[in-house]
Amino acid sequence: MEQTKNITDKDIQSLVGNLLRAGVYISMVIVVLGGIIYLSEHGSEKIDYAEFSFNKVSLKTVETIFANVLTFRGAAVVQFGLLMLIFTPIARVLMAVVTFFLEKDYLYVLIGLIVLAIIMVSLSGGFAH
Fold first, then answer.
1. CA angle 121, 124, 129 (to 5 degrees)
2. Which of 2, 10, 102, 128 falls between 20 and 30 A from 16, CA-CA?
3. Helix (H, G, I), strand (E, B) or coil at 105
4. Is residue 53 assigned to a domain?
5. pLDDT band at 55 (very low <50, low <70, confident <90, very high)
6. Which pLDDT tens digit goes with each residue over 87-127?
7. Of 7, 15, 9, nearest to 92 (Cα)?
8. 3 found inside a domain
């Protein structure tokens, strides 16, 4: 006789907690590695704190960060780690939508999808385009 294990709320809470914890730890490791790479590339440069030009900043969009992270430039790796930190709670919301769908709780699936839509719109710059 085959037994199936029902997933309980406690199992889901544990899974979500582990997801959030792992996301933070992975992000932290990526940022620290990026910082080490950045310091090895630029540690001896003299910085002029009197002037800041936003046009010199090259990693302004998610696309450029993803394009440059594979070059292992320190700034791109740090930015990628920060993106992973931002995407960790988004993954949590996505996981909640999936678990609500598996539990056939469609009202909460809809609410979760609305939350995801709001997050995506705000991350893309909103409706100001």
1. 95
2. 2
3. coil
4. no
5. low
6. 898 998 998 898 889 888 899 999 999 999 998 888 777 66
7. 15
8. no
> Residues in the chain, how many?
129
Rounded distance between C-alpha atoms, residue 126 and residue 129, angstroms:
7
What is the C-alpha separation between 109 and 90, in angstroms, rounded? 14
89 close to 123: Cβ distance less than 8 angstroms: no
Q: Which residue range forms the structural domain that includes residue 99?
A: 10-42+58-123
CA 22/CA 11 separation, integer angstroms = 16
Q: How many domains does the chain have?
A: 1
Nearest to 13 by CA among 99, 105, 107, 117: 99
What pLDDT score was predicted for residue 46? Answer: 81
**Residue 52 located in a structural domain:** no
Closest CA to 90 of 111, 106, 112, 69: 112
Q: How far apart are CA 74 and CA 68, in angstroms?
A: 10
Q: Is residue 48 part of a domain?
A: no
Please tell me whether the overall predicted TM-score, pTM, comes out greater than 0.85 for this model: no
